Amino acid sequence: MTTMLGAFVLATPDPPALADFYRALLGWQEVERGLEWVRLRPPDQERPGLSFQLETDHTPPTWPQRPGTQQMQAHLDLEVDDLRAETERACVLGATLEEHQPQKDVRVLRDPHGHPFCLFLPGA
């Protein structure tokens, strides 16, 4: 038996809305859509997908992390070829740029539902 990663799943109070953000950001295709579950796949279908699951009590993590707060357990790293332009585009789509930026060639943002994600340049 072979085990492989099929998708990364983000919990959200509104799966269709968050899927729309990532579909626009990544240029991926929607392959399943419901009120409680949405799946995106990359055009080549060879890489893992991204899914969105209804979680009515979703609490976004704190960034940077602090003791006694909701901790980030995972985040998405998205490689880009133009950090400034892609950061601006992500913000136009609804992301917010975090004040704390730990590296020069990486930008920490939050999607519209508070999940942190990073944009980074190749080699960063």
Sum up the structure in keywords:
2,3-Dihydroxybiphenyl 1,2-Dioxygenase, domain 1, 31% strand, Signal recognition particle alu RNA binding heterodimer, srp9/1, 4-stranded mixed β-sheet, 124 residues, alpha/beta
Explain how this protein is built.
With 124 residues, the protein is α/β, with parallel strands linked by helices. It has 2 domains: 1-57, Signal recognition particle alu RNA binding heterodimer, srp9/1, CATH 3.30.720; 59-124, Roll (2,3-Dihydroxybiphenyl 1,2-Dioxygenase, domain 1). It is built from 2 helices and 8 strands, in the order E-H-E-E-E-E-H-E-E-E. The protein has helices at residues 15-26, 83-93, and strands at 7-12, 29-33, 37-41, 49-54, 76-79, 96-97, 106-110, 116-120. A 4-stranded mixed sheet has the order 1-4-3-2, covered by helices on one side. It has a 4-stranded mixed sheet with strand order 5-8-7-6, with helices on one face. Strand 6 (96-97) and strand 7 (106-110) form a beta hairpin. The longest helix is centred in the first third of the chain and has 12 residues, at 15-26. The protein is globular and about 40 Å long. The mean pLDDT is 93. This is VOC family protein. Residues 4-124 form the VOC domain. It holds the Pfam family Glyoxalase_6.
Q: How confident overall, as mean pLDDT?
A: 93
Radius of gyration: 15 Å
Task: Report the portion of residues in β strands.
Answer: 25-35%
Structural class: alpha/beta
- The percent range for helix content is 10-25%
The order of strands across the largest sheet is: 1-4-3-2
Main sheet overview: 4 strands, mixed
User: Could you name the CATH class of the largest domain?
Assistant: Alpha Beta
CATH topology (level 3) name of the largest domain: 2,3-Dihydroxybiphenyl 1,2-Dioxygenase, domain 1
Question: How many structural domains does the protein architecture include?
Answer: 2
Pfam family, one: Glyoxalase_6
Protein name: VOC family protein
InterPro entries: Glyas_Bleomycin-R_OHBP_Dase (IPR029068), Glyoxalase_6 (IPR041581), VOC_core (IPR037523)
